[in-house]
Model the fold of this input.
Amino acid sequence: MRDRAVPNLPSRDFDTLYAAILATGVPETRVGFPRLHQVARETWGGRVGYLVDIDGTQLNLIGER
Done:
């Protein structure tokens, strides 16, 4: 297995970014490619979602507090 860097995309307007990704037709699900993982509040206070592209590369979507 090859290690991959997972890029982070912080956003001050997280809800707009997430909605824009959904509007492109990327499904909000836990399986398949591409996909968008539903946003969750993390213990450190921020919100995180995940966009996985058609090749399986994951982009962390990070909403500031």
Notes: Residues 20 and 26 are 10 Å apart (CA to CA). The helical segments are 14-23. The mean pLDDT is 89. Strands lie at 8-11, 35-41, 47-52, 58-63.
